[in-house]
Design a protein that fits this description.
Distance between the termini: 10 Å
Radius of gyration: 21 Å
Number of strands: 14
Number of domains: 2
Number of helices: 8
Helix content: 25-40%
Largest sheet: 7 strands, mixed
CATH architecture of the largest domain: 4-Layer Sandwich
CATH class of the largest domain: Alpha Beta
Bound molecules: zinc ion
Strand order of the largest sheet: 6-5-4-3-2-1-14
Structural class: alpha/beta
């Protein structure tokens, strides 16, 4: 069994539930579409729903970043955004629910959207569980103290039921975590932020958010270049549209085309775009996805015509709840 990746939260910056007005608009649009197609019977509902692009139903999701990588014997969580809350409920069905769980959480950095779910991660309150927390930056214990501190939160870090174990990861050096080898690499983001390359049985998963990816050619990537090579699945920061990314220089985030260029250059097989802008509606994200598709197809055509040797890439904008094998 290889690695299995599940997206528990793909929104950037702030949890962003779809509001009541937007939901009413969506229901109205869907009902209109149902009858416009010529359907009229209850029995046709499932067929209709299956025919829709998924973003028109559930959207891309509002929880902030949290991914889960599992193999047969090892589980690693990346980041503790609000997506870690439903993941916590899921874990309660296993040893974590009985106080016999071992959880491993890697933190890319400590911006709120990557830690704000921790006070609602139920396994952390259950005595007997051990929560291993990993980061490159040394501030991890202080960050936890700040999150679990009055008057911001009623339970103090020292009162948490689970045992917390802190680990510092050395940059650009592999660390073995059960069946998975983890190597951090530097991203282009304030405070700073680290990508994670996970390897298992010859397969490579790479977590590349948050990043503006200012360094994208081989020379600028320098010691981080090997981290972008031989990758089977990369998640990449696509907070902005192509227009916004030009306006928001130094904001620490990228657009999908930047990740695609990198993937086509280095032969990354598959890319999932995450960290969607909280102010963007599902329609706006879908539009960005469509524009990226046009861009990608142009690049492929040019590369074929002019023999540029760019690699073709399988890619998509990730939605909350999706999962795939690496
Ligand atoms: Zn973020
Ligand atoms: Zn950030």
């Amino acid at each position: 069994m290889g690695m299995h990746v599940k997206f528990w939260g793909v929104r950037g910056s702030l949890p962003s539930p779809t509001g009541p007005e937007a939901l009413v608009t969506r229901f109205r649009d869907l009902l209109h579409a149902f009858f416009d197609i010529g359907y009229s019977r209850k029995a046709e509902i499932e067929k209709f729903l299956e025919s829709l692009p998924p973003h028109r139903l559930g959207g891309y999701g509002g929880n902030t970043l949290c991914l889960e990588v599992t193999t047969g014997a090892q589980q690693i969580i990346i980041d503790g955004g609000s997506g870690i809350r439903p993941l916590g409920y899921d874990l309660l069905k296993g040893p974590c629910g009985k106080g016999k769980g071992e959880v491993h959480i890697l933190f890319t950095h400590f911006h709120w959207d990557h830690v704000l779910g921790l006070p609602f991660f139920t396994p952390i309150f259950i005595p007997g569980n051990t929560i291993h927390l990993y980061a490159v930056e040394p501030d991890l214990p202080d960050v936890l103290k700040t999150i679990f501190r009055k008057p911001n939160f009623p339970v103090q870090m020292e009162q948490l039921g689970a045992k917390l174990v802190y680990h510092r990861l050395p940059p650009r050096q592999p660390t073995r975590l059960g069946e998975i080898t983890v190597t951090p690499y530097q991203l282009d983001h304030p405070d700073p932020c680290w990508g994670y390359r996970l390897e298992h049985q010859g397969k490579v998963f790479s977590h590349c958010a948050d990043t503006e990816c200012k360094r994208s050619n081989r020379e600028d990537l320098g010691p981080d270049l090997p981290m972008y090579q031989g990758v089977d699945l990369m998640v990449f920061d696509a907070q902005y549209s192509i227009v916004e990314v030009v306006e928001k220089v130094d904001w620490g985030h990228a657009a999908a085309l930047i990740g695609l260029d990198l993937a086509m250059q280095e032969g990354i097989k598959k890319v999932a775009f995450i960290h969607h802008e909280p102010a963007s509606s599902d329609d706006k994200i879908a539009q960005a996805e469509a524009r990226t598709r046009e861009y990608y197809e142009r690049q492929v055509k040019t590369s074929r015509e002019e023999n540029l040797g760019l690699h073709e890439v399988d890619w998509f904008f990730a939605r909350e709840g999706m999962s795939l094998d690496v």
